[in-house]
Amino acid sequence: MAFDIEMIKKVYENLAERVDKARDLVGRPLTLSEKILYSHLWEGNATQAFTRGKDYVDFAPDRVACQDATAQMALLQFMHAGKPRVAVPTTVHCDHLIQAKVDAKTDLKRAKEQSNEVFDFLSSISNKYGIGFWKPGAGIIHQVVLENYAFPGGMMIGTDSHTVNAGGLGMLAIGVGGADAVDVMSGMAWELKFPKLIGVKLTGKLSGWTAPKDVILKVAGILTVKGGTGAIVEYFGEGATAMSCTGKGTICNMGAEVGATTSTFGYDDSMSRYLRATNRADVADAADKVAKYLTGDDEVYANPEQYFDQVIEINLSELEPHLNGPFTPDLATPISKMREEAEKNNWPLNIQVGLIGSCTNSSYEDIARSASLAKQVAEKNLKTKSQFTITPGSEVVRYTIERDGFIDTFDKIGATVFANACGPCIGMWDREGAEKEERNTIVHSFNRNFSKRADGNPNTLAFVGSPELVTALAIAGDLGFNPITDKLINEDGEEVMLDEPTGNELPPKGFDAEDPGFQAPAADGSGVQIIVSPTSERLELLAPFTPWNGENIVGAKLLIKAFGKCTTDHISMAGPWLRFRGHLDNISNNMLIGAVNAFNQKTNNVKNQLTGVYDAVPATARAYKAAGVPSIVVGDHNYGEGSSREHAAMEPRHLGVKVVLVKSFARIHETNLKKQGMLALTFDNEADYDKIQENDTFNFTDLKEFAPGKQITIEIAHDNGTTDTIVVNHSYNEGQIGWFVAGSALNLIAAAGAEAKA
């Protein structure tokens, strides 16, 4: 039986009435995305039609999921909410704090020793507040959610940007910051601007070397890393229904890389098969009864241009395997063009390491297809030219692939199986020699490939591909190798070609595991004590942020003018910094250390205007804070792209930054800044970015009149005595302005809780 089956049945009981009511109000057929949105309104049945990309709407998500790195801060905030138990089903998954180095057993043992304090904290706080806890080694949050919690037509939020993976089972699953999760866990509404809709029509059928991963790699090349911002991507067509459920999950997972709010597919037989294979026949049976409400209306898919804001069509029968990168996940290159592009751009052709697995591509089908290629190494007397690693997505997948002989197959080609955790995908990879910062090429089946992302080496060029393509490239050791057309020379000097990959969608003998790694919470957690040592370097109880004083911000100094791409990896690095995710002051020492200073093209090197000395960004921010001087960060387009990590918003808030002013924001980061009581502003005239000088001081002249839709005026005082006055925009509504006034959204929750107890 599925977890939370009664909750799922209740969603389905209300579904028809709510969707029918919404369809009448809107006055036209509905997409799947609209059906799920309108059926999860906080108010219940819809009373109005909402305008896409304009109206802020309150929703009631069905569940919340948190990974260990973000759960620490989310649950430290939840402690301030004054609630005895979470209001919706919630889970915590220990997957980010396990560093890949030797092998699964060794690395997991080391992680449990090094992060024991954090795991104990998460276990106990989960026990206290009624939260399901998945132990270290149980698997990566998104694979575990797909196997246990995702259900067609549901809505969930998660404190990780790849929460969208659950769209493979027909959900609207959305990545958020911890403060958003606290709202929902506290029983409050969750606010989202009603998304725009991008429809992707898939015709034809995948075959041969082409995989579901190639669909999203192609889409990323079309939309770019910001083309999906503020939109839901909905896939449909014969190509969609012909694809496996886990393949759909892969596509949705990497939809985070185009900035989309989320991605999803309509309910079909592949989802039913997967639900039944993962012991959730009860969910499949319930979904079958309301199946027509779990996909878009027929008229929508017949004439998509009338119902979506943008339509993309991809013929899967003609789609070629792709490699995306380096340094950005939207630089899409068909494999037939890779050698030409590599030579033109001087990308190293020798592949050092091939890595498969991660939350994006670690299904049974992925591993089976890769294993079919690994098996050919011995059969064709080949030798694997690159190092090769596998990161299983869950203990269920790992146990099953070991039982079915795949791990033995990989062992024979010298592969290393890492723990069921994020590992190299998030920089938790202690790669030998990375500290030398030599220029090199790796290929992986992960989702992101920003500079330093995998191994901390800024000169590692990482390319993203499907697991089967990565496996073939690792065997060849050559970035320009095209397995469709190229031959390899085996150990006998003979020319051989790799056969096309094959593999079962689901394990013929079913999934299995001796211990999936789940800990159910106590029925009554009121007696559970949460202990955080005041001397801990890993955990720190939070103090509320200070409310706005009602005055204009004046005398604010420029902390940094970030040049070019500035992702959450640049603002708050992962890797070794993950150990401080529960300690706001300690992790703030990584704030913006990866951002490039526009004035000297250096990282972590900015001018302290109080002393005239160049110093690290966090040190300079602390100096301003100690002197009572507010500071401001200026950035370029799509600022805050990437992970949902709210630390990238909490750290500047903690270190005295009052304002982040950029050309445009990534959705999650903008919301995170708002939630923490920051001013998230955008240039009305993007050319004003060029007016910002290194020694500038910023004075707000009309912040006292802060209101929805009203521009804000800033006087910029330059050190030569001249000034520029600019107007800037914001997207705050009345409620969000309330967060700013109160000092943070959490301050409002805590105040409401205290008032209710009074």
UniProtKB/TrEMBL annotation:
Q: Where is the Aconitase A/isopropylmalate dehydratase small subunit swivel domain?
A: 558-686
**Aconitase/3-isopropylmalate dehydratase large subunit alpha/beta/alpha domain span:** 35-477
| Keyword Lyase annotated | yes
Please state the pathway this protein functions in, per its UniProt record.
Carbohydrate metabolism; tricarboxylic acid cycle; isocitrate from oxaloacetate: step 2/2
Quote the cellular component terms of the Gene Ontology held in the record. cytosol
What cofactor does this protein call for? Answer: [4Fe-4S] cluster
Annotated GO MF terms: 4 iron, 4 sulfur cluster binding; aconitate hydratase activity; metal ion binding
Q: Which UniProt keywords apply?
A: Iron, Iron-sulfur, Lyase, Metal-binding, Transit peptide, Tricarboxylic acid cycle
**Species the sequence originates in:** Flavobacterium rivuli WB 3.3-2 = DSM 21788
Task: Tell me the protein family, please.
Answer: Belongs to the aconitase/IPM isomerase family.
Reaction catalysis annotation: citrate = D-threo-isocitrate
Q: What is its EC number?
A: 4.2.1.3
**What is this protein's record name?**
Aconitate hydratase A
**GO biological process per UniProt:** tricarboxylic acid cycle
